[in-house]
Amino acid sequence: MNYYAIKAIYTFEMARWWRTVTQSIISPVVSTSLYFVVFGAAIGSRIESVEGVSYAAFIVPGLIMLSLLQQSLSNASFGIYFPKFAGTVYEILTAPISHVETVIAFVGAAATKSVILALIILLTASFFVDLQIQHPIWMVAFMVLTAVTFSLIGFIIGIWADGFEKLQLIPLLIVTPLAFLGGTFYSITMLPETWQNIALLNPVVYLVSGFRWSFYGVADVDVGISLGMTLVFMAISLAIITWIFRTGYKLRA
């Protein structure tokens, strides 16, 4: 394992993130705080509780997960896309670093950034609502697994995209709507039965449900299924990345 190469790419990616702290940290924290104010204070004052949890506290795991998904995709996709755009990706591909090590470096940096941001948002949320974390180890586990999985998906998007417009296409048109419809602001048990069954086709439901369970012990679907679905998404993403490096898809001129 070429640890020096992994460390070099990882350090470079983290340094780039810290250089844009306003965009990469302050902006998403402020945006999420506005959700707490609008949905937690304004709407929460009209909804007493959901499944025994105050509405303001109920939406916190969903909002953290929403930010985690968006930032993981954004960090990983831009991280690999920019070397393609600048033409320096060929230096990485010809350097003495394996494909596995390349993925570990880029995805590891993207996941680290997302987890740090999620923890900052969690700390910020504690100033707005009274939070409970019944299963802290599982909370961290779901956070890390989701960050890694969506960083892998973001890595795929970054390789697939051949322009900045495509870089934003899937996150804006697919992932964000799925996140909003995935139980971020409500429990799917509040929906009519037909819509509950349709909602179960949304993969984000399982992520939000499992993450919310780690806070309050309540979930829309069994936590074991949530964990299993997260691992399935990760396995699919790894299979696609393996295929990309084997075939050179979008990497070879």
Automatic annotation (TrEMBL):
Q: Which UniProt keywords apply?
A: Cell membrane, Membrane, Transmembrane, Transmembrane helix, Transport
Q: Where in the cell is it found?
A: Cell inner membrane; Membrane
Give a Gene Ontology cellular component term annotated to this protein.
ATP-binding cassette (ABC) transporter complex
The ABC transmembrane type-2 domain sits at 19-248
The UniProt record lists the keyword Membrane: yes
Q: Where are the transmembrane segments?
A: 25-43, 55-82, 102-125, 137-161, 167-188, 200-219, 225-245
Question: What membrane topology does the UniProt entry give?
Answer: Multi-pass membrane protein
Instruction: List the molecular function annotations (GO) for this entry.
Output: ABC-type transporter activity
Q: Which family does it belong to?
A: Belongs to the ABC-2 integral membrane protein family.
Q: What is this protein called?
A: Transport permease protein
